[in-house]
């Protein structure tokens, strides 16, 4: 093979890989499932379905509001009791073909349906855009924004930790807010990095931010997880010291509108008592 043909072959392979990665980025998210025993045996609610969405990153070309509308329909089809969104509603990546206002970006989310409502925290991209505007846009469509604060959802008390990546988190204040409301604790955070600091008694934490690496090259692995812990809390279900962490791969993209080896997903977490039967 001549050098020119070799370069042509590499260019063709690169184009095919980029095409596959873009197709993966715009594909329908996979629904992943996990059961976690955190409800007391005498709880009136023996089972609740919590849907975790994260890293929506509305921007062209891969996540226009029209695509988010289709994902909302998919989310509602899971019939969740509560929906939790782990931040990063927008994306201002350099290669974006179109950027949307915060109002335009979150508008499709007003159709989310669940028994106890939708709860959210902000991510680093929301803070970089404008945190106050992001909170306002979400509140306008009925989403409860937790800013180092807490809210009740049936027997659960959801603590919403503000973004740790941009140093807006206050775990102590969040835990106090949860204790004041009572209930079975569940912590929602954009980044998984605070997980080692979460005390005993808070046995479930949900997060996003890592995108499960977003672009994971063969033999090389992920280019970055954007985590101070490397791949320790990179993706999926992690159990440490009796506590469970669920990290979603997210729905949209950051930096590049590509995904390789890290498909979009949403998590349906069934929280239940130890005595309840599994699905």
General description of the model:
- The protein has 279 residues and is of the alpha/beta class.
- It has a single domain, classed as Purple Acid Phosphatase, chain A, domain 2 (4-Layer Sandwich).
- 24% of the residues lie in helices and 25% in strands.
- The protein has helices at residues 3-25, 65-76, 102-106, 124-140, 171-181, and strands spanning 30-39, 47-53, 82-85, 118-120, 144-145, 149-153, 156-161, 184-189, 204-207, 216-217, 221-222, 236-240, 243-247, 265-273.
- The longest helix is centred in the N-terminal third of the chain and has 23 residues, at 3-25.
Provide a brief overview of the structure.
The protein is α/β, with parallel strands linked by helices and 279 residues long.
Number of domains: 1
**Element order, helices and strands?**
HEEHEHEHEEEHEEEEEEE
The mean pLDDT is: 92
Parts with pLDDT < 50 across at least 5 consecutive residues: none
Which helices and strands, and how do they pair?
Blueprint: H1 3-25, E1 30-39, E2 47-53, H2 65-76, E3 82-85, H3 102-106, E4 118-120, H4 124-140, E5 144-145, E6 149-153, E7 156-161, H5 171-181, E8 184-189, E9 204-207, E10 216-217, E11 221-222, E12 236-240, E13 243-247, E14 265-273
Structural key phrases:
alpha/beta; Purple Acid Phosphatase, chain A, domain 2; 6-stranded mixed sheet; 279 residues
